[in-house]
Amino acid sequence: MDHAAALVDENALFAALAASADPDAPVPTCPGWVLKQLFRHVGRGDRWAATIVRTGQPADPREVADGRPPDGGLVDWLLGGPQAMLDAVAEVGPDTAVWTFTGPRPASWWIRRRAYEALVHRADAALALGLDFAAPAERAADGLSEYFDLLAARKPDPDEPALADGAVLHLHATDDGLGTAGEWLVRGTGGGVVWEHGHGKGDVAVRGPAADLLLAVMHRRPADSVETIGDAVVWERWLARSGF
């Protein structure tokens, strides 16, 4: 997966929605937000990540340079975000360790993170505007894997685990050609989760196109928008407890 190309492409699709959107339209999947806040969040987030890459240290998103779109220049400002990100990674080197909210990671980690941030928020914008959302199956599947990586790195919560110890959630993307990259086994352990690609029996199996699975896992579509086989309570509890 070329994450740099995915970042540029997702950002361009997102910016295209911004070109004709009512900035004050509410975003149902981001309660309390309107579209102008969503657009600013993504554009500022790219520059925030670029600042982190350049310094190697955490940064206050409210203080990053060029953190607000100029009057009448929203689309160009959004389109400039990925280049700022890619330039920063090129400057320090993709393998240079930098700060992330999951611990030190190679600078290139942020390219993948920002690509899927743009993809999910593109879905938010499309849903707010009543438009269809689509994403390439390979990209959506990798986005799911990236999200499971984030969850696996999160501090365990033994009081309200997303999965009980030993419980297994099996997700299966129905798109052609994904192979094992389109199947995930997520297991509860010690209040946290571990995951791997593969086919196996789970307490619940969740099936659908990769893009639909991604949006359901990311709480952008209802739990019943994808097919479930087995204990649906495990799936519903997972969704209730796995958000950021």
SSE diagram, text form:
Blueprint (H helix, E strand, L loop, with lengths): L2 H18 L14 H21 L18 H19 L4 E2 L6 E2 L2 H20 L8 H17 L14 E6 L9 E7 L2 E6 L6 E5 L1 H8 L9 E4 L1 H10 L3
Helix pairs in contact: 1-3, 1-4, 2-3, 2-4, 5-6
Number of domains: 2
Tell me, rounded to a whole number, the average pLDDT.
Answer: 96
Computed CA radius of gyration, to the nearest angstrom: 18 Å
**Which class best fits the helix and strand makeup?**
alpha+beta
The strand line-up of the biggest sheet is 5-4-3-6-7
Explain this structure.
It is built from seven helices and seven strands, in the order H-H-H-E-E-H-H-E-E-E-E-H-E-H. The chain is α+β, with helices and mostly antiparallel strands and 244 residues long. It has a five-stranded mixed sheet with strand order 5-4-3-6-7. Strands 1-2 form a two-stranded antiparallel ribbon. Strand 4 (183-189) and strand 5 form a beta hairpin. Helix 1 packs antiparallel against helix 3. It starts with a helix and ends with a helix.
Compose a concise summary of this entry:
With 244 residues, the protein is of the alpha+beta class. The protein folds into 2 domains: 3-128, Four Helix Bundle (Hemerythrin (Met), subunit A) (Up-down Bundle), CATH 1.20.120.450; 155-241, SCP2 sterol-binding domain (Nonspecific Lipid-transfer Protein, Chain A), CATH 3.30.1050.
